[in-house]
Amino acid sequence: MPTSSYFTILSNSCLVLLFQAFFISIAASSDRHTPENHIRTRAGAPFKVALFADLHFGENAWTDWGPKQDVNSIKVMSSVLDTETPGDFIYLFFYLFLKATYLTDFVVYLGDVVTANNIPIANASLYWDQAISPTRSRGIPWASVFGNHDDAPFEWPMEWFAASGIPQLVCPVLNSGEECSFRGTSRLELMKNEMDNNVLSLSKSGPQDLWPGISNYVLQVLSKEKPHTPLVYLYFLDSGGGTYPEVISTAQADWFKRISEEINPDSTYKNGVPELIFWHIPSKAYKKVAPKFRIHKPCVGSINKEKVAAQEAEMGIMKILVKRPSVKAVFVGHNHGLDWCCPYGQLWLCFARHTGYGGYGNWARGSRILEINERPFSISSWIRMEDGSVHSEVILS
What we know:
Blueprint: H1 5-11, H2 14-29, E1 38-40, E2 47-52, H3 65-83, H4 89-98, E3 106-110, H5 125-137, E4 142-145, H6 187-197, E5 217-222, E6 230-236, H7 250-263, E7 275-278, H8 285-289, H9 317-322, E8 327-332, E9 341-344, E10 347-351, E11 366-373, E12 378-385, E13 390-395
Parallel strand pairs: 1-5, 2-3, 3-4, 6-7, 7-8, 8-10
Antiparallel strand pairs: 2-11, 5-6, 9-10, 11-12, 12-13
Helix pairs in contact: 3-5
């Protein structure tokens, strides 16, 4: 695993602070940041992905506590992105001055970006934009999937009916022509806002025949050395919740089967392109492999503080995944007190680490990091904590 000691020294120096803004603009214009259906690796460098799970921006937005948690969540993401860099000083110095400041290649927002049921405004996109700001400001591309809280119906807080008994309505100025609504912001609106207003977002609204599930799409990581050769496929699925049941439907499973066989027909271990899967709510398969008490081998992790809160039903996606040797791992969020990876047949089932200060639980915050090396090929993962410490390294390929 790369260390970060040299970068820690540099990140605290005035030199990096002075040149940071300039190199962010270089990063944004880099060919690896093209807003297409692919991301390109850096020649001779591993491809690194940070997973940000369960940020819960906008939680208790009407209190002093809520906005403070959003600030803390931004600090966590900033710390992770600023720490996850190569440890080789010469390479880092070269890269800082000739290519980009930040060396995390990609970020995945793994659902529950906002707590929509706590946001007393019609447009949750304002909080969504805050959540993606640490990634966007560093010129790093990203993709997102939806969680159960992202478009949950607004719930009127009891506090609004205490004391004076007059709800603290947050509405447009009178006679502005806008309606005052607390209906919340739908998945489709959230995704449209992200796609329309962010050139670095690779998120997609997915096939219309899979709606109300929105975040169903696939991205490919292309080799820098072989420009038209996929190094790995990244699949994103909407696991429901909020305005509809917590489930990956049969239609989504059939879509994945059809698309994966089309773009990656030779899915044998020897010849197929490796595949990684991302959704928010764990499938029932996670309950089968969950450690009973302490995390023990072959599982790897640091916290196992609650039971798996799985999807409401299994509609076939796991049966498809276990039959594809090319599928190496599935990554989910949802459970804030779990961060383990456990094998399930030939693939791994992994939780991210709770990143946001919103949501339940007082466990230390962090991010699951993925690192993909091209030669020799490997996929590894570890947890990077807010304080910079690292634990739970696991080889996934």
